[in-house]
Write a structure and sequence with these properties.
Elements (H helix, E strand, L loop, with lengths): L2 H18 L6 E2 L1 H10 L3 E4 L3 H6 L6 E2 L5 H8 L8 E4 L4 H12 L4 E4 L2 H7 L15 H6 L6 E7 L4 H16 L5 E6 L4 H7 L6 E6 L2 E7 L4 H8 L1
Parallel strand pairs: 1-5, 2-3, 2-4, 4-5, 6-7
Antiparallel strand pairs: 6-8, 8-9
Helix pairs in contact: 1-5
């Protein structure tokens, strides 16, 4: 059975089950969801689209669009299976399906019944995306010294793989201090720049030498590979 067909089957089963029992081992209400967040040591996952996320999201939520099979699989593969994952969407349907899929992959996962709609209805806090001034192509190029080696890290705060790469990049910058320049760009905010640079996934790492782009790679990259490219 294909990924999409499995999803449809799962959603149908969840809808039938939820109509009988909104509080199940995998579906939790707003109060339980909030308690889990307050306790910490968990992973909060928004499974909506990027535009939905930008319209309002729970604080510190990561993002993986359930409707985009490739993106969802790629982003969730870096989640920690030793920590529970609490998912939500708009009304709870997509996140219920995502929760079942995550459980099939070995995660301990829970779904917010009613989604962010129920969360808002209970007057719980939601963060709005800030309006950020867009960096122009000229401004970006000015960040790249032509007489030094530069490592550009284009990431997003809601990106699970970016969370994995952040300490690796910071460690390399510390080891290479004085020998290279690290430029960090929040791709989640700088959408126009990402379009101009043809950035299709986060994180994307770029290396410039003497002002020329010599290497670019997206996703999880080992410290050894980055260090080798920086030589």
């Amino acid at each position: 059975m294909s990924f999409k067909n499995r999803c449809l089957s799962t959603i149908f089963s969840i809808a039938v089950f939820s109509s009988c029992n909104s509080q199940s081992p995998t579906n939790v209400d707003v109060a339980s969801f909030e308690q889990a967040i307050a306790k910490g040591n968990m992973q909060l996952l928004d499974v909506r689209t990027a535009s939905e996320y930008q319209s309002g999201h729970l604080s510190n939520a990561l993002l993986a669009n359930w409707n985009d099979e490739a993106e969802f699989k790629k982003r969730t593969e870096t989640l920690d299976k030793t920590k529970p994952v609490y998912t939500y969407c708009l009304s709870g349907v997509r996140s219920a399906a995502a929760t079942q899929w995550l459980r099939q992959q070995g995660f301990t996962a829970y779904n917010l019944t009613g989604g962010i709609n129920a969360w808002k209805k209970a007057n719980k806090p939601v963060e709005q995306a800030n309006t950020v001034k867009q960096i122009t192509k000229a401004q970006y190029e000015a960040m790249i010294p032509t007489n030094q080696t530069v490592l550009v890290d284009i990431s997003a705060v809601w990106c699970p793989p970016c969370k994995v790469m952040a300490p690796i990049v910071d460690s390399i910058a510390q080891v290479k201090s004085g020998k290279m320049v690290l430029v960090k760009i929040d791709g989640g905010d700088q959408t126009e720049l990402c379009k101009m640079l043809n950035i299709n996934a986060f994180p994307t790492l770029i290396i410039y030498k003497q002002g020329k782009l010599v290497w670019q790679k997206e996703g999880i990259v080992s410290a050894n590979e980055i260090a080798k490219q920086l030589q």
